[in-house]
Structures are given as C-alpha cells and as structure tokens.
Write a structure and sequence with these properties.
2 helices
Length: 54
C-alpha cells in the first residue's frame, strides 16, 4: 500500500506546483478539486484498519 501512498503524494506535489503557476480560475478550481480528492484518499489510507477480535 505504500506505493499507492507514494503515488498520491507525488501527484499531490505536482498539483501544488501546477496550482502555483495556474492563472485561470477554472484551472485553479480543477486543481483544488483534485487536491481535495487526493487528501481524502490519503486520509482514508492513513486510518488504522479494523482491530482483530483476539
């Protein structure tokens, strides 16, 4: 699963760089939406799994 997280973090970094350069409102909105999706996915993956009943 660490590969998934690494890929998400890499994508997030690229989007942050794009956001810094973006001038059109539509581009900024699109990038911010993608960043929100990545943050949601990272939060989900960072949650501890269900505990074993033993």
């Amino acid at each position: 699963m660490s590969t998934v997280i690494e890929n998400l973090l890499t994508r997030k970094q690229k989007l942050v760089e794009e956001l810094e350069k973006a001038q059109a409102v539509e581009d900024r909105d699109r990038i911010e939406h993608q960043l929100e999706q990545i943050n949601t996915a990272l939060d989900f993956l960072d949650r501890p799994g269900p505990k074993d009943g033993t």
